Amino acid sequence: MSEKLIGLEDLPDNFKVYLEDSFRKDLISKAVKEVGGFIKLSKEISIDWSSLCKIRRGYRLINNRKSPYFIKISLLKKLLEITDTSLLEAEKSIVGLTFNKMLANTRLPIYITPQLASLTGHVFGDGHVSKERFKYVNQRKELVEEVENYTKLIFGHDGRRFFYNGCYGIEFPGVIGRLLSFIGVPLGRRTTQEFQVPTWIKNGTKEIKSAFLRALFDDEGSIINNEHYHFIAISMYKQSNLIDGHLKFLNEIRQMLNDLEMTPTKISFKKNWNDTKEFGFRIYNMKSIITFSQNVGFTHHIKNQKLIKTIENYNNIRI
After folding, report:
1. Of 48, 50, 37, whose CA–CA distance to 82 is shortest?
2. Is residue 319 very low, low, confident or very high in pLDDT (cuts 50, 70, 90)?
3. CATH topology assigned to domain 4-110
């Protein structure tokens, strides 16, 4: 069974949850019985009785239409304490999360999976996470579809597709971005802050490391295959005053490749761009390139075809 990464206990108290009907109604009934009445319970947990009514029935009416009514985690914890109900029991009954009024049909807990590792790799690549949204933009439709499918699988949200300046894109609400930040991805511009590979990926299984690296190389990597050179490369930019942390991050990527039996070059400086510097490394050794194909590979169709061609050419020369 996969390891638990995010549970109810890991979420801030200002997050809101939607509970299954039977559990929610039973919880309120038990709490009312414990304190001796509905009005007494509303005073005990510091909300008005009409809000407690909405929590119990699970919706409110807006323009004669039912709208789901969520409960703050801080308030849920008060009800759990009154009824002597565990967080784990409540966690099993969560069917949705919200932050900034946007819903994700997410059940808890969230587990460590290759799909989550891949999604994390794409966030470190061409994705952008903020409190308002999680957005991913790429010229390759297959990569955007991968992000869309994995986000739907893990967080229960379809997202909104768009097309801009020759690129495909998908955008999700801020609650998805906040959840991703809890698993170790940075909020905001990555070039202006330090970050490292999340521990659960660095210490993960071969499948977890491979999924993360594949997504990152899909977005940030390249493959050169001509009559003079054959190599896989990756490089990323960072604000000039944050280079030490950036080199540490790139060395973590190199170590993960080593863990998967590849031998990358040392990190080297590439070029300056505005107030940032580009650093990266390559995989030259053909044995390592073949191992990359076997243990990591590309989802990016063009890069994958170049990788296949590189190995075929090498094998033909050897024959």
Report:
1. 37
2. very low
3. 434 Repressor (Amino-terminal Domain) (1.10.260)
Position 228 pLDDT exceeds 90: no
Q: Is there a shared CATH topology between the 111-189 domain and the 218-318 domain?
A: yes
Contact 152, 158 (CB under 8 A): yes
What does the chain come to in residues? 319
CATH fold of the domain at 218-318: Endonuclease I-creI (3.10.28)
- Rounded to two decimals, the pTM is 0.91
- Strands of 71-72's sheet, edge to edge? 71-72, 16-19, 94-99, 102-104
User: What's the mean pLDDT in 221-231?
Assistant: 87
Q: What share of the chain is helix, strand, coil (3-state, %, to 5)?
A: 50, 25, 25
Regarding the domain delimited by 111-189, which CATH topology (the fold level of the hierarchy) does it fall under? Endonuclease I-creI (3.10.28)
pLDDT of res. 219: 97
What does the pLDDT read at residue 93? 94
Token pair 């990190």 in the structure block, residue:
267
Residue spans of the domains in the chain: they are: 4-110, 111-189, 218-318
The mean pLDDT value of the chain amounts to: 92
In 3D space, the residue among 233, 197, 212 whose CA is nearest the CA of residue 295 turns out to be 212
Residue in the structure block whose two tokens are 């191992």: 291
